[in-house]
Specification:
- With 204 residues, the chain is of the alpha+beta class.
- The protein folds into 3 domains: 4-63, OB fold (Dihydrolipoamide Acetyltransferase, E2P); 66-128, 5' to 3' exonuclease, C-terminal subdomain (DNA polymerase, domain 1), CATH 1.10.150.20; 138-198.
- It is 48% helix and 19% strand.
- The chain contains 9 helices and 5 strands.
- A 5-stranded antiparallel beta sheet has the order 3-2-1-4-5.
- It starts with a strand and ends in a 6-residue tail after the last helix.
Length: 204
């Protein structure tokens, strides 16, 4: 199996790219999270790869980090998840964001990925929940997700105490927390302050 390639980036047009390795051009598909890290055409590049062999084709996928590739392999083990869906997930979420979705059982966020319906999202969470995913142990992920949920809950409680409706508070806090990558580095005080600015029309 081809596990790694190093060569010159000849072309890149999402989701495909071509890598020249000692005169041989390798065509690969890659997620957008990898495309964001690609250098300019003509530069040297190293990619972690995964080869999918089918009766009618051999498909090569490239990833900028080993964690991306390992997560891709985890996804392919799930019934109903093929390479294209795996790429879509890795294009819509970073490895870290995906882990938080799984351990926080965030079905809604997963369904925001194009091609992922609610049933598929629930199946992915069921299959991977509690497993040690790339880059961090499951226990560490649960701790982060729990901290994030606690921050959101505190902020929502504070807003409702100020007279805002629960539904409005949950919506605004959810949007602000998602924009801040799962509330990492964001305190409940900061969330409350931003929410008050967003809801500046006054208590409802």
């Amino acid at each position: 199996m081809i596990g790694q390639l190093r060569g010159i980036l000849l072309s890149k047009q999402p989701p495909a790219l071509m890598l020249d390795v000692q005169g041989v051009g390798y065509e690969l598909d890659a997620p957008m999270t990898t495309f964001y890290d690609l250098p300019k055409e003509g530069a040297e590049l190293m990619l972690h790869t995964h080869l999918v062999v089918r009766e009618d084709a051999q498909l090569l996928f490239g990833f900028s980090t080993e964690n991306q590739r390992n997560l891709f392999r985890h996804l392919l083990k799930i019934s109903g998840i093929g390479p294209r869906v795996g790429l879509a997930i890795l294009s819509g979420l970073s490895v870290k964001e995906f882990r938080l979705c799984i351990n926080g059982e965030d079905v809604v966020r997963l369904t925001k990925v194009p091609g992922i319906g609610r049933k598929t999202a629930e199946r992915v969470i069921l299959e991977l929940r509690g497993k040690e995913l790339p880059g961090m142990s499951a226990d560490e992920d649960v701790a982060i997700a729990g901290s994030s949920n606690e921050i959101r809950s505190d902020a929502i409680s504070a807003l409702t105490a100020l007279g805002y409706r629960v539904k409005d508070s949950e919506k605004v806090i959810g949007q602000l927390a998602d924009q801040s990558d799962g509330s990492e580095g964001l305190s409940s005080e900061s969330l409350i302050r931003q929410a008050l600015q967003a809801m500046s029309g006054g208590p409802r």
